[in-house]
Fold each of these.
Amino acid sequence: SASRPQLRWRDEIDNSDAPFVPRLRAKPNALVPLQLVLVPPSEEAGSSGGRGRAEPATWYANPYEREISAFAPSDAQLLPGPDRPFAPLHATPCTWVDSEATLTHMRARLAAAAEIAIDLEHHSYRSYRGFVCLMQISTRDEDFLVDAIELRGSLHLLNETLTNPNVTKVLHGCDSDVLWLQRDFGIYLVGAFDTGQAARLLELPSYSLAHLLSHYCAVSTNKAYQLADWRIRPLTEEMIAYARDDTHYLLYLYDRLRAELHGRGLCAAAWARTAELCKQAHKVKPFDADESAALLRRHAAPLSAAQRAVHRALYCWRDAMARAADESSGYVLPNHLMLRVAMAMPRTPEQLHAACHPLPPVLGYNSASVLSAIAMALPRSAIDHEKKVP
Ligand code: AMP
Ligand code: MN
Ligand code: ZN
């Protein structure tokens, strides 16, 4: 179904907290052979929380760590180049890539490029861990919009180019992209340049892409589509324009930023910082019931001990429901409603409805289950009190 594309890859969905296993089967551009290395639990990061709260006990190392460390930018990647103005969007071909044939065509075009720009659009509301919906790629001459839902199983073929250190990959703010590429496609980046890191090193007034586009390209963009539903097909004209904007100007920005960095002796640092981001390994974020307390602190709401216990039980309940239904916890029970239900401590379906309207669908279908989770969390004293005062 178009609205629930993950049904197509249902067999590979693992919403457990087991370590993520790299999806790589072949390793193009390898300096060392493909090997899965489980990083053992470290001694200083105690198992009982503290600093490593969001970190799993163990994970698989990034299989391209050595190649990323060994990458040294060439003179062409460090020195200012010739002036290459960008063409306007309307004068640039744009190809929708959603089949093996169009993917093959794109790969041939990319193989001829020395530099490419990449960005991703992601969906996280109707899925437990989220998934990439769209991959935008621009060369100096054309834009590609890749249907990452349709081609989910084939995009690993891009590793040939994306792990080739001689092809520059330009991204803006690639922290998440690096992890999403690993998680969904088994794709790694060797030889990447992050224009966001460049903006930081240059201490520009803003590090956002919107700022870089307006400052260097005199292009104003509409970031309203960032949170659009990127699952829908066909994409609307506005979404297509937004998606193309995100990569179309990046190679020009790379030229401008590289020249400025070079003038201040900072170019190598930009490559090194991006390499650190690319060395990240995708890790499963383990569930931690204690995070419910952090949510309450953020709301600054005065809750009784009983209400706090119910809030924690709801927090655990919604995580279990979200995993089973492959929905986000925010879809199952948004934070503000979770707080309201915790404060109401409902015992009956009527009280639940009164505390929580509109009732989110997953909560409605499972009201018996949530009421029993609430009842079990209530301290004995609260229940005894209720019995005495009917
Ligand atoms: P971008 O590269 O800025 O287009 O963002 C890539 C993806 O990150 C988007 O498709 C969203 O899924 C997600 N994203 C970006 N900004 C936000 C935000 N402010 N809140 C939530 N998700 C975001
Ligand atoms: Mn991005
Ligand atoms: Zn984007």
Amino acid sequence: MDNIELSKAAISAMERAYAPYSGCRVGAALLCSDGSIFTGCNIENAAFGPTVCAERTAIFKAISEGKRAFVKMAVAGGKNGTVNEAFMPCGVCRQVISEFCSDDFEILCVSTDGIAVFKLSDLLPMRFSPENVKGSDNL
Ligand code: THU
């Protein structure tokens, strides 16, 4: 699965966004190490707080289907549903990705300039990870 194909899957997922409040449609496509792909879109809510981002939709779908090992994720988004500038994953999504992925997990951010590739360690340096909690007497 090359970066262009994964990015196309993220762009397709934008179509399924439920974004009546912001008008921002976001799609994500997560490549698992077994080659399977899980897509996600943002799902907004009238109460605003329950809104979930595309990246978390994709990763939660994958986890709930038994996947634990991931290679990379493409993210595409746009105001009014059109891709222009890169939609960078929000801080909450970075932390959720951090729970399951290593520093070299790749995040592909799609824009009209192309696909910018970041490592998780670029987007969430000095992260708080499961390693910080393992070994605690409560676990
Ligand atoms: N959004 C995402 O789907 N992913 C992000 O990383 C940032 C924000 C969504 C949430 C909301 O529906 C809309 O974009 C505007 O914030």
